[in-house]
Design brief:
The chain is an alpha/beta fold. It folds into 3 domains: 11-223, Rhodopsin 7-helix transmembrane proteins (Rhopdopsin 7-helix transmembrane proteins), CATH 1.20.1070; 226-378, Reverse transcriptase/Diguanylate cyclase domain (Alpha-Beta Plaits, 2-Layer Sandwich); 389-639, EAL domain (TIM Barrel, Alpha-Beta Barrel), CATH 3.20.20.450. Helix content is 58%, strand content 14%. The chain contains 27 helices and 15 strands. The strands form 3 sheets. It has an 8-stranded mixed β-barrel, surrounded by 6 helices. A 4-stranded antiparallel β-sheet has the order 4-5-3-6, sandwiched between helices. A two-stranded antiparallel ribbon has the order 1-2. Helix 1 (11-29) packs parallel to helix 9 (204-220). The longest helix has 29 residues, at 70-98. It is elongated and about 125 Å long. It starts with 10 loop residues before the first helix and ends with a helix. It binds ligand C2E and magnesium ion (2 copies). One magnesium ion is lined by residues 424, 483, 515, 544.
């Protein structure tokens, strides 16, 4: 056993030293995130280790103080006090950076909040001359002076300030950070109180080690910021460094790279080979763009974060990036990774990390298509489109929750019978801010986020409800056409759900015509399965928007389709003299015994000429625009009077 000179119990302090050294080494050996938070944490670790060692050494030396020159005695005791103060401040500084409090409370907050620590540090450093904190008497040696308590006041002040900052930012913090900061601050307080209660046991540094451990495990472990297989910075790291740029209002740009055919390459060459290749790609980028940060966002996606603004010619810069990256990665490796590249300047990116991340993900998904147009830059227009899209997503959700999506009806007119014999149901979304949103827009949004299934159900219910309550069948409407989108047809419950709804409203399925687009029918087996089931339930099926896609006609003819709707673009092209194919198409479908509805009939002349081409069923503004259920009934009343008169 070591024979200690003083009465102090060093067990806790001594046990904490190797743990602190190991943590410090692990932390320093990995390249950590270059953010302020991490340097505050490093400051705290260094201060705590210095405090622990100088505490033990000074306590021992104070017992035999006459053996050393007086300045050495002052120096070692001052080292302890200085590191004690810095440790308290550094934990506060770490918490303030984590909560973004300096940005919230204004730019001088960091300076103002450092004042108590600086004042006490001055008192400590001047103590050999002023004797404010401690001193040495010729007989007794070391003793505490009248302002000794100020070192505790400084620490209490920072603990209290940390609690306040945590509370102010409580809502914006992740649970992990919240728990990490609250427990670590609480432990620091507990350590100081216990030290006061058991004066002879040096426990403060032990509690500080617990604090360091909690912070290390909850948010400062370098492994949290790296991809597991290829050791590049990951998405979390991108968020933290990005937040740092935003909060210090530093201009930046992101180069967004998506590996083309990534899943297919993994399938062909295996995950290990592809990861090896990604590692090489990433290493080359880090070496070539050593002023920037390279992040790997999984699935073959990289982001390069560059310091500084893009300048006046962003298009050129973007193209330059594309070329640089192509040149950098050109070699003869078998696993060939090609990347689509998009440049996102900070003035386009905005100042919210979540919005930036959404934009990056959107860019990753669409970079290939955008690159194919010869474009490599994310513009303000594109972002505005996305903003609108996210607003529509909210408006749609709100409308679905309140069941306020409306269904309008547009008559399908029979020239032979001189009256409407059908109607197409068209969804309408009205929003206070956006006004009327076109279904082309909100259906696409609903398809993307999966709301389409709920939307489709609500529309179908409204249609059935209207058919039943307005007695449409008795009024000569043989069928109501309902649009189905491909995403909706992927739902295996579609056919049974719709059958159940129709039954509930006592609407025979034979009164419904489901309109499906060519793309839907071309694509998937799952969609075909639903289509067959709907058909089996008695509904009619029509092919919508014919003429807009590039269908294989022989395949289409084999599908269970009763009716083809010729898209208004084909119809209008015929009347503009741009394409003369319309009469041939009509003849072909008639020969195959398929019914036809022509869309986009806008004038009397169009109506007549199409009738001459034997198009009996017509739809378009000439007859009526899509109108509300009430107006549709008015239309029926009016036209009934006309046709009977
Ligand atoms: P669609 O099924 O081809 O519907 C016809 C579209 O042409 C409607 O646009 C209609 O208002 C418009 N239209 C009708 N007559 C004329 C005309 O004479 N001239 C011109 N220029 N346009 C005419 P709308 O209502 O904006 O719908 C657009 C598309 O949104 C629809 O095209 C359909 O694909 C989709 N949609 C609408 N409602 C639904 C729905 O309930 N479910 C699904 N899945 N898609 C829907
Ligand atoms: Mg349609
Ligand atoms: Mg159509």
């Amino acid at each position: 056993m070591i024979h200690w000179l003083s009465d102090y119990n060093y067990d806790f302090a001594l046990a904490s030293v190797p743990i602190q050294v190991i943590l410090l080494l692990v932390y320093c050996l990995r390249r950590n995130l270059p953010v302020r938070q991490s340097s505050s944490f490093l400051n705290m670790m260094i201060a705590n280790l210095t405090m622990t060692i100088s505490d033990i050494v000074s306590c021992e030396m104070n017992e035999v103080w006459t053996d050393f020159p007086l300045w050495v005695m002052y120096a070692i005791n001052m080292l302890y006090f200085v590191s004690f103060i810095i440790r308290g401040w550094a934990l506060f500084d770490y918490a303030a950076e984590s909560c973004h409090s300096y940005q919230k409370f204004g730019r001088y907050t960091r300076v103002v909040m450092a004042v108590p620590a600086v004042v006490v540090l001055i008192m400590i450093l001047s103590t050999p001359w002023t004797g404010m904190i401690f001193s040495f008497s010729p007989t007794e040696g070391y003793f505490n002076c009248y302002l000794y308590q100020s070192i505790y006041f400084s620490t209490y002040f920072y603990i209290a300030a940390t609690f306040v900052f945590i509370l102010v930012s409580f809502k914006d913090m992740s649970t992990r950070l919240r728990i990490g900061l609250l427990t670590s601050n609480g432990l620091l307080l507990a350590g100081i109180i216990l030290r006061k209660l058991f004066f002879h046991v040096l426990v403060t540094s032990y509690f500080s080690v617990l604090v360091i451990l909690i912070i290390f495990l909850s948010s400062e472990n370098p492994d949290l910021y790296r991809h597991r297989q290829i050791r590049f910075f990951n998405r979390e790291a991108f968020r933290r460094i990005g937040t740092e740029y935003l909060s210090h209002e530093m201009p930046f740009s992101c180069v967004i790279l998506a590996a083309q055919n990534y899943e297919m390459l993994k399938h062909i060459y295996g995950t290990t080979r592809v990861y090896e290749r990604l590692q090489i790609v990433g290493d080359r980028m880090i070496a070539a763009f050593n002023q920037s940060f390279v992040f790997y966002l999984r699935n073959g996606n990289f982001v390069i974060l560059n310091n500084g603004a893009v300048g006046d010619e962003p298009d050129k810069v973007a193209l330059q990036w594309k070329q640089d990256i192509e040149r950098l990665l050109a070699d003869h490796d078998i696993v060939k990774l090609n990347f689509s590249v998009l440049l996102l300047p900070s003035e386009v990116a905005g100042n919210d990390i979540n919005a930036i991340e959404n934009l990056v993900h959107y860019s990753l998904r669409n970079s290939d298509t955008i690159n194919q147009k010869g474009e490599y830059l994310i513009t303000k227009e594109l972002v505005q489109k996305l903003d609108r899209e996210s607003y529509i997503r909210l408006a749609l959700k709100h409308a679905l929750d309140n069941r306020s999506i409306q269904v309008y009806f547009q008559p399908i007119y029979s020239i032979g019978e001189k009256r409407a014999v059908g109607a197409e149901a068209l969804a309408r979304l009205f929003d206070d801010k956006l006004g009327a949103v076109s279904p082309d827009e909100f259906i696409r949004v609903a398809e993307k986020n999966g709301d389409i299934v709920r939307l489709g159900r609500q529309i179908f219910e409204s249609v059935c409800e209207f058919i039943q309550s307005a007695h449409l069948q008795e009024r000569g409407i043989r069928r109501v056409h309902v649009n189905l989108s491909p995403a909706q047809c992927m739902d295996t419950q579609l056919a049974p759900d719709f059958a159940e709804i129709a039954k509930r409203y006592q609407v025979p399925m034979s009164m419904i015509d489901f309109e499906i687009t060519e793309t839907a029918i071309d694509d998937h087996r799952a969609i075909l399965a639903q289509i067959y089931r709907l058909k089996e339930s008695g509904a009619e099926l029509s092919l919508d928007d014919f003429g807009t896609g590039t269908s294989n006609l022989t395949r289409l003819m084999k599908l269970p389709i009763d009716l083809v709707k010729l898209d208004l673009t084909v119809v209008h092209a015929y009347f503009n003299g741009e394409a003369a194919i319309l009469p041939d198409l009509i003849r072909m479908f008639h020969n195959a015994d398929m019914k036809i509805v022509v869309e986009g009939v806008e004038t009397e002349e169009m109506m007549r000429r199409l009738s001459d081409l034997s198009c009996n069923y017509q739809q378009g503004y000439y007859f009526s625009r899509p109108v509300s259920p009430t107006d549709f009934l008015d239309y029926l009343n009016r036209t009934e009077t006309h046709s009977t008169s």
